[in-house]
Specification:
Strand order of the largest sheet: 5-6-7
Oligomer: single chain
Order of helices and strands: EHEEHHHHEHHEEEH
Shape: globular
Structural class: alpha+beta
CATH class: Alpha Beta
CATH superfamily: DD-peptidase/beta-lactamase superfamily
CATH architecture: 3-Layer(aba) Sandwich
Number of helices: 8
Largest sheet: 3 strands, antiparallel
């Protein structure tokens, strides 16, 4: 079953940018260019607001790259994403997404680099690109696909796609949120097999967005499993 509406429309990626970062982390590890056990030090210059736990702790704490990738997804940790962007290189992440055929996705700034936005550099994506990236993971066609899917299944922000599904349904997903924007993109496991659902949208208020995506997720599940 496939349905694409506005699949090439670019949206601000918000925290969906963390999925390309995770993909590049595992690609580089598989290529032997780094080790997931390598450590980085949380320095004061990395401290930013928003979601996450690393920025709540003291500078000087050391984190393995694997753990940075995990909290970046599971807790949507902004500090973790910025640290990994520095280690991997923003240009490298962008280039890797192009090589995977993600034509609408741009990775051009750290989470709170508003000066980059003013200069015309932003993190964007489309539903088409997110479907493609998740399909590559679901089909085990990317380095570390199974490990990445396991991380995505530990997601703690579950108000959107998972909220419309039967209890216990496995969902490997990542959310993204900015004022007026609410996204969720994931792989849903069902007795009939897996499907990918990507929801990117603008809403007048958060409550409307949550209710809309929860209801749509439920309808898609029912249609797929009927």
């Amino acid at each position: 079953m496939g349905l694409l509406l506005g699949e090439q429309r670019p949206y601000e990626a918000a925290s969906l940018v963390k999925l390309p970062i995770l993909v590049e982390l595992y690609r580089r590890a598989e290529a032997g260019q780094l080790s997931l056990d390598e450590e980085m030090t949380f320095e004061e210059r990395f401290r930013v607001g928003g979601s996450g736990e690393i920025g709540q702790g003291p500078a000087g704490t050391r984190w393995k790259l694997a753990d940075l990738g995990r909290v970046m997804i599971v807790k949507s940790d902004n500090v973790a994403s910025d640290m990994l962007m520095e280690r991997l290189g923003i240009d490298s992440i962008q280039r890797a997404m192009r090589e995977l055929g993600l034509e609408d996705t741009t990775v051009q700034r750290t989470i709170f680099d508003f000066s980059a936005i003013d200069a015309g550099r932003d993190n964007l994506t489309s539903s088409r690109d997110m479907v493609r990236l998740l399909a590559l993971i679901a089909d085990n066609r990317l380095p570390g696909s199974q490990a990445m899917r396991a991380v995505l299944e530990q997601q703690t922000k579950n108000e959107l796609i998972p909220a419309g599904l039967p209890p216990g349904t496995r969902v490997a997903h990542k959310t993204g949120e900015l004022t007026g924007l609410l996204h969720d993109a994931g792989i849903v496991s069902t007795p009939r097999g897996d499907y990918i659902l990507v929801l990117l949208g603008e809403f007048p208020d958060r409550e409307t967005g949550v209710a809309t995506w929860k209801a749509l997720s439920a309808r898609v599940y029912q249609a797929f499993t009927r």
